[in-house]
Structures are given as C-alpha cells and as structure tokens.
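Problem statement: downstream parser choked on a complex file, so we are re-checking the raw output for the adenosine monophosphate run. The parser issue turned out to be on our end (a line-ending mismatch), but while we're here, posting the original submission so the record is complete.
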Amino acid sequence: MSNNGVLVCGETREGAVDERTLELVGAGKGLASELGVELSVALLGDNISDAADDISFFGVDKVYKLAHPLLGAFSPEIWAGALASLCKQITPNILIMPHSSPWMDVGPRLAFRLDSVLTTDCVHLEIDQADSLLLRTKPVYGGSALAVFKYDKFPQLATVRRNEEAVALDKATVILAGGRGIGGSEGFEELENLVNSFKQSFDEVMIGCSRPVVDSGWLPSSHQIGLSGAMVQPDLYVAVGISGAVQHLAGMARSRKIVAVNTDVNSNIFAVADYGVVDDYKKVIPALKTKWEELARERDKDRSVRKTNS
Amino acid sequence: MKGIKIVVCVKQIPDPEAPLGAAKVDSDGKRMDVSALRQVINPFDENAVEAALRIKDEWGGQVTVLSMGHKLDASVLRKVLAVGADRLILLDDPCFEDLDTNSTAHALSLAINKLGEYDLVITGRQAGDWDSGQTGIVLGEILGVATVHLARKVKIEDRHAIVQKIVPGGYEVGGLRFPYMKMILLSRRQRLVTCKAEHIELRSENIQKMGIVYLMPPPDLRRQCTFVEGTSPEEKGQNLAIILNREFG
Ligand SMILES: Cc1cc2nc3c(=O)[nH]c(=O)nc-3n(C[C@H](O)[C@H](O)[C@H](O)COP(=O)(O)OP(=O)(O)OC[C@H]3O[C@@H](n4cnc5c(N)ncnc54)[C@H](O)[C@@H]3O)c2cc1C
Ligand SMILES: Nc1ncnc2c1ncn2[C@@H]1O[C@H](COP(=O)(O)O)[C@@H](O)[C@H]1O
C-alpha cells in the first residue's frame, strides 16, 4: 500500500472540508507535482463521507477516510495514534498539517511515534533539487529571521502557518488594537466607542490586542494579534499603547495602513507605522472619534447633495 | 494529603522582547547573532513556574526547576529560587546546544526520571528562540503520561490535576510573581546542582541537532512614519481624523 506521496491532514467543520484545508491541498499539490508523486488527503472524524466526496473535486489522487466514533471528538492521543497507523501502512514521503492548536497537539506526538522530525509554523515549503528533501522555512526569534530546516527522516513533517483563531479577525477592514499602555479593561471602552463610530464608515471594525492584555485577563485570547495569536492584514490597523515587539509585528505589519498612538516617540511601533501620534491615547482617541463623526456627517451631506443634483 | 512534587522545565534564551533588529542573522547565515541580547528565562516558562508555585501555595510540596543548555547563566535562572522554587537543576553541556525536539525531550526525560518521583511536569508553550512549541508534548509521550497542551490553569483536587485549556475565545492569564528582596539574597547562596550529559546517561544516538540549512533576514517591515502634528493631544486626534478621512473617507 505504500505510496511515498504527499499526504495532507485536513479538518472538517460541520461535516464539510474547511477552506483552509483546501489551501493546504494547494500547497501539497505543488510539492507532489515537483516530486512526481501522488497527493492524498487524510480526513479524521465520526462521519466524514460527505467531506471526503467534496475533497475529491480538488484534484486529489486519494482520500483516506479515518472514520470512527472515537475520532468524532478531537483527542490528540487518538488522532495521533490513528495517523501513525496510517503512516506506517502507506509510508508517505511528506505529511503536512495546518498550524492550528489541535494539530500542534497532534503533530509532535506523531513525529515522536514515527521517529521523525516536525517543523512547526512553516511559511514556505519547497523541494531541494539536490536530494529531493523538503526545505521548511519558518520564522524564528519572533520573526527576527527566517530559518530553513531539512531532515532526512520520513515522513517529512510540517505544520503550515494559517490563522485559525483569526477566523473572525482576518475579515476585518479595520482593527483597533490596544496594548498594555491601555492600562486596564476600562480603557478598552475608549476603543469600543471608536469602534462604534468607525462602524458607520467601514464594513468591519474589530478590537485586537497584544499578549499582555490577554495575560492580564482584560480580553479573551481570541483578540490577540501576533506570533502566538492571529495574523491579520486589515485595510487599517490602529495600534494604541502597543510598543511593537517583534512577536506583535509578526501578526500585523502587513496591514495596508498602520496608525500608532503611543506616548513614547522611541517606540518600535512607529518604525512600521504610516502615521504616528505621540501622545496619551486617553485624550487622542476621544478627539479622533468626535472629529471622525463630524467628518462622516459632512461626507454624508455632500453625498446626498450630489445625489439630489444628479 | 502529602505535598505535591512538581518539575518545571525552563529554558534560558536571548531576550525575545528585545527591540527589532537586535537579534540578527550572523554573517555566515548559519546561526543567529544574539551577542547584543541579555539572557532571560523564556517568558512562557515563567508562567509555568507561576502555575507550579500556585499549586505549592495551596498544597505544599516541592517545585524543582530543570534547565538544559550550554553555558547557562545561574544568575538568570536563580530568579526561580527567589520566587519560591525549591531546587534548580542545571543540565549544562556543549552537546545540549541546538538539539532537535526529540533529543531535547529525551534528555529532559532522563533527568526527570533521575529525580525520582513526581506528580506533575509543567513546561512552557513555546521557547521564544526557535518558536517551536513541541517539547512539552513529546516529553509527555516519552514519560508516558497524559499531557494537556495549552493549559491555562492547573488545580489539584482529590490527587487529580484538573487542567483548564485555552480554547479559542477563552482567557489566558500569565506572569510570574515578584520576588521579595530577602529571597533574592537567600537564593544567591542556595546550592545548585549542575549535571553533564554523562550524569543523565545520555547516549550519543539521542543527540541529534536541529537541521538548519541556512538563515535569512526577515522581509523588511519598516515604513516611513508621518507624525501627526498638533499643540495638544486633542488637536493631534482631530488631525488624525482628517488624515484618515482623506485616506478612507
Ligand atoms: C514566544 C513569544 C510569543 C509572543 N507572542 C505574542 C503575540 O502573539 N502577540 C503579542 O502582542 N505579543 C507576543 N509576545 C509578547 C511580546 O514580546 C511583547 O511582550 C508584547 O507584544 C508587548 O505588548 P505591549 O506592546 O502591549 O506592551 P508594552 O511593551 O509594555 O508596551 C506598552 C506601550 O504602551 C505605551 N503607553 C503607555 N501608556 C500610554 C498611553 N497613556 N497612551 C499611549 N501609549 C501608552 C508605552 O509607551 C509602551 O510603548 C510574545 C512573546 C514571546 C516570547
Ligand atoms: N533546553 C531546555 N531546557 C528546559 N526546558 C526546555 C528546554 N527546551 C524546551 N524546554 C521546555 O519546553 C517548552 C517548549 O519548548 P520548544 O519546543 O523549544 O518551543 C519550553 O517552554 C520549555 O518549558
């Protein structure tokens, strides 16, 4: 049964293949064609027949259905056990998983049980032409460098970066993010107020934060932006009371426009910002809100005037 | 109930919160130049130590901190003694440098088994140098114990550990307590145990290094920042609104 191909581990959501698994299938397809081998997908769960049918539309050579009532609820031990047995049977050359919290729990166990080496949080995968081994690129030191790893143990294992926790956040047009400089959960009310007035003008406006905010219990971890949180690219990112640590930048520096409000002109956040305000957010944000509402009213008036003229 | 024996694995790393550009790729492109950075305890491991101390506060017992590396700086790691850990064990040997996950977890497991009985092992979520996030899980596999990934709170009830996990949307509470001055002074005199690879009977086939092919600088994230003018914070806020209106209105 050995196929020596590329195997993608997929996730299903409410019986359907989730869209991020399809991204991973795309990445797997590239690797498989470079190596001239088969691309397969493994789906685990209780009832996955529909999902398995769906995925065969996406140019996958084989789907392995690991269906069992015990696989219905996520259990890292059982999932790792099931996948390890599958790998022993079909000896994939490469196995890739999403970089999400369940797979980060399964992946290391799988690596250990198969005596292989896993590279987590890869942002790029390619084949080394010289020896056909997988080159795994991942950010290290919080994003201060990119490292390329290679191991000659099989299956070659990688988790691939994606924004699992950010399902909601990565749709945002605007993210207003607060950091330790906000000073407490009350301070976030100032940002909430601004959210409400921005909502009149933007499709989606959401609150984000840095890790200390989550550590202090001011906001739930689903709001965290950065290396160990969500990776986002909104049209506008407003960083308030955030110093700009590399791990935070990893999650937001690719936003289209970045505004930073910080009392310290030497803060690193200004290095990645398009616009900076050096002052106390408690005074800046309410003034921004009031003026924004005023400008929004004028815009609306102009528009209705233009409408009646035409 | 007798006290609980807890082992905490703590990694010493170059300060991951140093300013952008402080950690950079060495000219040979094979290692990181971190000479400008001070050494610290991995921040996630401080959370692990705090979780252990909270259990000790409630139940009594013994907290042993295990740290593995090469040229470990005791003055950095003694902080765990100053906040209330009972023992600090350093595994210091050139062969402990740049190990891959399986080897790291293997060496830690040998040391833990040498320590004798334990009730609970706590590790950090990920080490802020290579950002791998695997060692704790593999350690659990090797020790053959149930392992909870992304724990946020551990309580002991009826000799069972009740572990709360982070779920998307949940809260995560971290941070290590501050030491008392008296404890800092006392901790400086506390005896340390330092072991080498041979003391934990680490065999050469279990010493596998990370397979770094090369390192690259990250894409440049820098932008030209225009500072918003104004004589008061309010005026700056208004001017920012005008700019944003121009960009997005
Ligand atoms: C492995 C690892 C993973 C990590 N993952 C993440 C992650 O995913 N996301 C993340 O954010 N961090 C992460 N971190 C933590 C990161 O290194 C920083 O510690 C964190 O981002 C700092 O948060 P901050 O900017 O809110 O706080 P601080 O660095 O304390 O900055 C607070 C800022 O607020 C400013 N300020 C204070 N008062 C005011 C005021 N009144 N008005 C305006 N400004 C004010 C100050 O000048 C300061 O710049 C990670 C760290 C490690 C080691
Ligand atoms: N050399 C080490 N010494 C002690 N603990 C370690 C070491 N390496 C990793 N750990 C522990 O394992 C966790 C995860 O590390 P990593 O898999 O390297 O991201 C860390 O937060 C530590 O608790």
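For whoever reads this later: The two ends of chain B are 66 Å apart (CA to CA).
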